[in-house]
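Case study 2.
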Amino acid sequence: MGKVTTSPIKMKPDGAQALSGVAVVVAVLCALPMVAVLLAALSGGTETVQHLAQTVLGGYARTTAALVVLVACGTFAIGVGTAWLVTMTRFPGARFFEIALVLPLAFPAYVLAYAYTHVLDHPGIVQTVLRDVTGWGPRDYWFPEIRSLGGAATMLVLVLYPYVYLLARAAFLQQSGTTFLAARALGSSPWAAFFKVSLPLARPAIAGGVLLTVMETIADFGTVAYFGVQTFATGIYTSWFSLFDRAGAAQLALCLLSFALLLAMLERLQRGDAKYHDPARQAQAAPAIVLRGWRALLATIACGVPVVFGALLPIVVLFYMGVGSEQNLLSARYLGFIQNSAILASVAAVVTVMAAVSVGFFQRMRGGRAAQGAAYVARLGYAVPGGVIAVGLLVPFAAFDNALDAWMRATFDVSTGLLITGSIWLLVIAYMVRFLAAALGAYEGGQAMVHVNMDSASRSLGQGPIGTLRRVHLPILAPSLLTALLIVFVDVMKELPATLIMRPFNFDTLAVQAFRLASDERLEGAAVPSLVIVAMGLLPVILICRQVGRNR
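Prediction:
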């Protein structure tokens, strides 16, 4: 598939330097955490590295790798299987599942962890009923342990498989039916044709979706921390807060960052090398396979299980838990949590989308290596876990605050304290770095609709870059920018590790409150902020569902 290119805009320099400056600053801020983590890790000395290698490093690596493998396999199986069923077959409820299979995307994995722990743990309703019915004692039977590596992997699979589902389904919809029909004419069964034709053609999209789930897996903190699974993400937080070892936290962050960047590079390589050319692109679509009897039942079950366990059952459980809790959602304290979360998410969404517009338009306007490099660096944030970004920003800004305070004390005998560290603006910068790639992707998707001739017409009418952006691009891109705002808003609402590490003193959010209550084993109380987080996540998911239905 050929790459669509546009000529750089050559206009009057009015506003161009300011816009270029903003794009460069954004790229520098995105690169700062990675550079700071590298420098802090190297300055820690070899003693810390040796101690980590002898104690926890091997365990962190094995657990993280095992979690990645389990989640990758699970999301691949569910995402690809359900995508092919709703796209290529017809069975009762297929149209409903096209939309419903996206719903778990609104849930943070740690929220599912709270809900299923309440149901499946030893004092939960399932084991309690089992003991009442059988008369068994606590040691008379075996039951799978939810607080385990397998439990954490299951929670992550249930909320992350929609990434693979959406991309795989889009790839299946774009395939011509000619190749599929040719395989059927040569004697292949529908399932054999799927494995020999449909699956290989969709490989680039599926690989991209699986790698996205892997990125989210290594960045997860709430689920693994609550289940007591020791990964690099939990190690960074423990080193920073419990052991007060910033060098150790930086070195663990460097290990995780290296793995994340390796995955990002693999994703870039597989996307760049993948060539898809279908000369029969305009030919008829593959005929839908009508399933009947037990096959239709199996298809309904296969699509229904992820929806039930990934969205419907958790909502029912959380609502039941919340009703029985002592948490008052309308109290001044909870209204403060909601206000803090809404302020952070709103400000971060606006700042992130503005940064995406600056970087994306700078790339279109200039088109040189500097613009391409700025856009590439800006996209790296999605591969960097929130804990790594937090450590990478706190180290340099804390050093700056301490140096400034020392100079002010020595010169004017005035203490400035911490001006940047611990402020809401540093946390907003962390959110921008983490989620800029999502906003930039939405912006560039909409920008493809703005033909280069529109830029030429704007130039002929005397408009500079800022005028072209304001009068031509932004009105056309309004739907894409609104989608980007909503996606970033909900991502910030769900984000936990960076918020835990960097939030201002006495400035808690819904995610922090849910994590704190769950850490104290007050799961009923944790259900209340969790439900609010889920409710805030449903809007962009509904928009995604509408887009999925529109693509049919």
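The beta strands are 89-90, 289-290.
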